[in-house]
Design a protein that fits this description.
Radius of gyration of chain A: 21 Å
Number of helices of chain A: 12
Strand order of the largest sheet of chain A: 1-2-3
Shape of chain B: elongated
Shape of chain A: globular
CATH topology of one domain in chain B: Alpha-Beta Plaits
Helix content of chain B: 10-25%
Oligomer: heterodimer
Order of helices and strands of chain B: HEHEEHEE
CATH class of one domain in chain B: Alpha Beta
Number of strands of chain B: 5
CATH class of chain A: Mainly Alpha
CATH architecture of chain A: Orthogonal Bundle
Bound molecules: iron/sulfur cluster
CATH superfamily of chain A: Cytochrome-c3 Hydrogenase, chain B
Strand content of chain A: 5-15%
Largest interface: A-B, 31 and 23 residues
Helix content of chain A: 40-55%
CATH topology of chain A: Cytochrome-c3 Hydrogenase, chain B
Number of strands of chain A: 8
């Protein structure tokens, strides 16, 4: 049969960011997909040569507008382990709380985008309305909605008072209750089940073979979660990875729905367990310049992120590199797209939760 | 055709038809910024001693300081509101206000495409007798004022 090549992206209604897939079709079936990235490469990793290590965290935060908190945190954690700085306990817990709140924010954003991609605009608005409340929490506590700039090497810049933390928890729990109605729509609406159920199935073996990470792997039944390694105070949290077994687009939606509840619960546990009081130390300032190299792993909303930092004893790092979860999930995405119908391609691409800014930095 | 009574979004949508909108009517109704929000950098020309630390540490290279001409300038649109300059200034000349940055018109873009948002301060040098001697820095020449 004659083959047709259709370019998908860089401008496409379902794509929030530029990604190109050359889809090779036979009739309506996708035979092959060739991805191209590089449209929004900004050279942020290269900026270590100009920006001193103390300020590089603010650049790293700008890798991505959705998981910016965790990028900043990952950078600071890496530098702390090179320089042997211990983070004060309250600062570590605050980081964990902010990280989980940003996971909720990211999943709500994605659920909205996903709903928009399968044509459910009303649901999109509902998800984003809730996300707005989370952004308000961020603006109140960190000073910025998207870019928080609270992480410093050795701790955090701002404290959240105990009464404010209690209020945030109440707000999150109310939001979680209100979200149940929206989550029910995702779970029970027949049009959603029809559009996503059984589409883009990634079996557990395939997910292992292509090294899927994050919700993508968990939706295929692999109980992987970098938070389980216990760094950054996660060892004191009771945490069970959210898994689904179906491996289809609907399962990936459901994993993220359930992770929102899980994150609210983690915030609750953290607020209970963290040391209370005013004026506790928040920052142990590092001394001297870093020297050495380190790998750091964190669980971002999209999956495992890996940072490599190499320092050579000067004010500027020698190398900084981030391997982001979307990059790790692209092989899985290509695997799913092969053999599916053209009409299902947008949903499959969106359910990996692509973040191209992260991927290209 | 699915039964519309089983579509869980229908009651929600009907309720939304009669409820208050979730959005604000923006230019008429503005939510005040939260206390502690990071907005614009404000500068106090009286206390600054032109040590240039803020300019050196600014990750966005938004600040330019000239010790000889005693000018301090910031590109407000380049600033990323990280707050480092506020932290490092030992003279407390800088502060972060909650006000968001000014909106500029296209007509304010300079002839060579210079971005608007440039703010500059100039402090005339005090009489030569009050300048403490700083090793390695030539005493600034008396200037004509701002
Ligand atoms: S750090 Fe403070 S005193 Fe020094 S140049 Fe900047 S504003 Fe002036
Ligand atoms: S807030 Fe940050 S980016 Fe803005 S002028 Fe100060 S140091 Fe530079």
């Amino acid at each position: 049969m004659r083959r047709t090549t259709i370019p998908f992206g860089p401008q496409h209604p379902v794509l929030p960011e530029p990604l190109v897939l050359d889809l090779i079709l036979e009739d309506e079936k996708v035979i092959d997909a060739i991805p191209t990235i590089g449209y929004i490469h900004r050279g942020l990793e290269m900026m270590v040569e100009r920006v001193e290590y103390t300020e590089m965290g603010f650049v790293v935060e700008r890798i991505c507008g959705i998981c910016s908190f965790m990028h900043g945190m990952g950078y600071c954690v890496s530098l702390e382990s090179i320089m042997n700085v211990e983070v004060p306990e309250r600062a570590g817990w605050l980081r964990l709380i902010w990280a989980e709140i940003s996971r909720i924010q990211s999943h709500l954003l994605w659920l909205g985008l996903g709903a928009d991609a399968f044509g459910f605009e009303n649901l999109f608005m509902h998800c984003w309305r809730m996300r707005e409340q989370i952004l308000d929490i961020f603006e109140k506590t960190t000073g910025g909605r998207i870019i928080h700039s609270v992480n410093r090497i050795g701790g955090v810049k701002r404290d959240i008072s105990d009464s404010e933390l209690a209020a945030i928890l109440v707000q999150l729990q109310e939001l979680g209750e209100a979200f149940k109605t929206t989550a029910r729509v995702f779970g029970t609406d027949p049009s959603i089940a029809h559009r996503l159920g059984g589409v883009g199935v990634l079996s557990m073996e395939d997910a292992r073979a292509v090294d899927a990470v994050g919700p993508m792997a968990r939706a295929s039944g692999i109980a992987t979660d970098t938070r389980l390694i216990g760094a950054n105070f996660y060892d004191r949290i009771e945490l069970e990875p959210v898994t689904e077994t179906a491996g289809d687009c609907l399962a990936r939606v459901v994993v993220r729905l359930r992770e929102i509840d899980q994150s609210i619960d983690i915030v609750r546990q953290a607020i209970e367990k963290m040391p209370k009081g005013e004026g506790l130390p928040l920052e142990n300032k590092p001394r001297g310049n870093p020297n050495g190299e380190v790998f750091t792993r964190l669980e971002q909303p999209r999956g495992e992120v890996l940072y490599y930092v190499k320092a050579n004893g000067t004010k500027n790092l020698e190398r900084f590199r981030a391997r982001t979860p979307t990059f790790a999930n692209i092989p899985a995405m290509i695997k799913l797209v092969k053999g599916c119908d053209l009409a299902d391609v947008p949903n499959i691409i969106l359910t990996i939760d692509p973040c191209i800014s992260c991927t290209e930095r | 055709m699915p039964n519309p009574l089983k579509l869980p979004m229908i009651p929600r949508a009907l309720r939304n038809l009669v409820s208050k909108p979730a959005t604000r009517r923006y230019p008429f109704e503005i939510r005040p910024r939260f206390a502690g929000a990071r907005g614009t950098i404000e500068f106090d020309v009286e206390t600054c001693n032109y040590c240039m630390l803020c300019a050196r540490r600014c990750p966005a290279a938004a600040i330019t300081v000239s010790r000889e001409e005693r000018t301090w300038a910031i590109e407000q649109l380049t600033c990323i509101a990280c707050g480092v300059c506020v932290d490092v200034c030992s003279k407390h000349s800088l502060s972060m206000s909650v006000n968001s940055r000014a909106v500029h018109l296209r007509s304010e873009v300079g002839p060579q495409g210079q971005r608007p948002g440039h703010e500059e301060w100039h402090k005339p040098a005090p009489a030569a007798t009050d300048i403490p001697a700083v090793a390695g820095v030539p005493a600034p020449a008396a200037s004509q004022g701002a």
